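Tokens as discussed.
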């Protein structure tokens, strides 16, 4: 099978997914921005460019967006059975490709947006017949909350592929963590871009308040860069690491006691899966798409209201005061939940979905779509 990917930024976990698909014997064409500077905004601090794509795929890494004619011709030469496009509004050239491929080619739109009822989303729903349906037959989503949005845009129940994102289990993994080990770490960990929607203000305020509420506070390790880094300056107990590559992040996760993600909005949050795979209890915002799949209240962490500094502080107190044996039990549940999806299962699912849709002649499968 031949599958073309039109992406908006490259990451380690996408690389792992593509490699797993190639390992099944499929041919890939990967079109991606060649540097973080031209990636979609949300990936500019995490887009790694060329991770050795040439080892497993025909590829085009661009610094200047290819023209519509150039890209249509390039994809046509590849002669794909399916084209997978990330986001419907990232590139006009990508949209041109989706319109130009034969009707037998399965056109898949990857989307991780959460339905929030925002005016822009209502507008998108109003024009979806002309703007979305003309470029995609199938939506591929990471979570149930993204599926709600896809259904609002007109994709029927048979036109949604579930499970678009997964952690790289070759990097993010952990052996069983003992009570003695995880209890002795005494450190919270946060990883991400230091920008407004990631809840850096909540993180700073909650951690400051947490230290007021407990006599034996844990430290807070912060991985990442961004314009709101100053909110964490001079905050007692905070250890800044700046940018770390995925293997370094995984190592730090295995040396921590709890992962925190207080984002105001987090369309999905692969980092939640990564943390769970490393055996971490997790505190996550209710606005993270990954929360439903990888966090169970009282079993391996808690889902905490977005933006509520006091609730976050008290959740941190509750976690740091758990007996070591309970932390180890949380860790076991996290590791178990993390195994629900891997790059290998992602690849097998995508290949099976494409083959089934090709056999049906392409287009939408839902009745009345």
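Sequence:
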């Amino acid at each position: 099978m031949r599958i073309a990917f039109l992406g908006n930024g490259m990451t380690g976990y996408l690389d792992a997914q593509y490699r797993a698909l190639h390992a099944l014997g499929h041919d890939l064409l990967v079109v991606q921005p060649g540097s973080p500077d031209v990636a979609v905004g949300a990936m500019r601090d995490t887009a790694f460019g060329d991770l050795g794509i040439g080892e497993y795929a025909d590829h085009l890494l661009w610094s200047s967006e290819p023209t519509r004619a150039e890209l249509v011709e390039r994809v046509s030469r590849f002669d794909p059975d399916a084209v997978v496009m990330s986001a419907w509004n990232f590139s006009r050239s990508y949209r041109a490709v989706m319109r130009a491929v034969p009707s037998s080619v399965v056109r898949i739109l990857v989307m991780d947006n959460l339905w929030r009822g925002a005016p822009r989303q209502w507008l998108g729903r109003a024009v979806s017949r002309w703007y979305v349906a003309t470029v995609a037959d199938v939506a591929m989503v990471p979570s149930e909350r993204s599926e709600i949005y896809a259904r609002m845009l007109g994709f029927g129940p048979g036109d949604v592929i579930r499970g678009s994102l997964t952690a790289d289990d070759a990097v993010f993994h952990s052996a069983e963590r003992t009570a003695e080990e995880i209890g002795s770490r005494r450190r919270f960990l946060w990883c991400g871009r230091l920008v407004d929607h990631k809840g850096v203000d909540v993180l700073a305020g909650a951690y400051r308040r947490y230290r007021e509420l407990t006599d034996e506070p844990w430290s807070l390790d912060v991985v990442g860069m961004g314009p709101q880094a100053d909110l964490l300056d001079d905050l007692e107990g905070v250890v800044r690491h700046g940018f770390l590559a995925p293997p370094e992040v995984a190592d730090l996760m295995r040396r921590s006691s709890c992962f925190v993600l207080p984002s105001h909005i987090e369309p999905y949050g692969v980092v939640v899966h990564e943390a769970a795979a490393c055996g971490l209890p997790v505190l996550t915002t209710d606005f993270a798409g990954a929360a439903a799949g990888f966090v169970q209240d009282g079993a391996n962490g808690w889902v905490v209201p977005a933006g509520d500094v006091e609730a976050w502080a008290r959740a941190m107190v509750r976690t740091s005061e758990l007996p070591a044996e309970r932390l180890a039990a949380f860790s076991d549940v996290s590791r178990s939940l993390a195994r629900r999806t891997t790059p290998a299962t992602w690849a097998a699912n995508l290949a099976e979905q494409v083959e089934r849709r090709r056999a049906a002649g392409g287009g939408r499968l839902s009745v009345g779509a």
